[in-house]
Specification:
single chain; mainly alpha; two-stranded antiparallel ribbon; 10 helices; 3% strand
Length: 201
């Protein structure tokens, strides 16, 4: 199950659109949505077989699927879906807008880096804003119980894990350098707050 399918299955904004045909529906499934990339784990999701699969597990599987795709192929897939969506919105007399917040980090990175010169500056800006928001949301979640050395260490450990799992393209799009990773690792191993000084600077 791709992230696109996951978005489609959890978007409440699509079901009442009478103009959606199968082609447009596929584009919407890839791009449009109203939830976050990793939704509330308490919200169950069920398959046609009646087996319950958590929303977090679905999102994680979808992100993993995007991570396996060739970067250029992923960019072309997004471009095609955007074009189809814009055309459908225009034909319906609706604003031609996209919610980039539902795309995986790798998909957003494909838009930000725009290696094939396929995306507009506005699309790149929206995708970068969505990537930055993912980082802010993760930090807010990690420190929701209060800012402590423990919460900062836990957050930094997650950054190291994320960095190591990311493709080079996603690291570049996020602006995460080897020095950024090293500073996060220092927070974990030494209790150094150099990472957070760097983020504020």
């Amino acid at each position: 199950m791709s992230l696109w399918s996951y978005i489609s299955g959890n978007s409440s904004s699509q079901s009442g659109s009478s103009y959606i045909n199968s082609t447009v529906s596929a584009a919407l499934a890839r791009i449009q949505g109203t939830g976050s990339v990793v939704p509330d784990a308490s919200t169950p999701a069920t398959s046609d077989t009646g087996v319950s699969i958590s929303a977090n597990a679905q999102a994680a599987a979808a992100v993993a699927e995007d991570n396996k795709k060739d970067f250029g192929d992923l960019a072309r897939e997004i471009r095609s879906s955007l074009d189809t969506l814009y055309a459908a919105e225009k034909a319906a007399g609706k604003p031609q807008t996209v919610n980039f917040a539902n795309l995986s980090g790798r998909a957003l990175s494909a838009v930000v880096l725009d290696e094939g010169n396929q995306f507009t500056p506005a699309e790149q800006h929206q995708a970068k804003a969505a990537l930055d928001q993912q980082t802010r949301d993760a930090f807010a979640s990690a420190t929701q119980g209060g800012m402590s050395m423990g919460s900062l260490t836990s957050y930094s450990e997650s950054l190291v894990t994320q960095y190591d799992a990311m493709s080079a393209e996603e690291r570049k799009a996020r602006g995460w350098t080897p020095a950024f990773r090293d500073n996060a690792a220092k927070v974990v191993s030494e209790g150094s707050l150099s990472l957070f000084d760097q983020m504020e600077g």
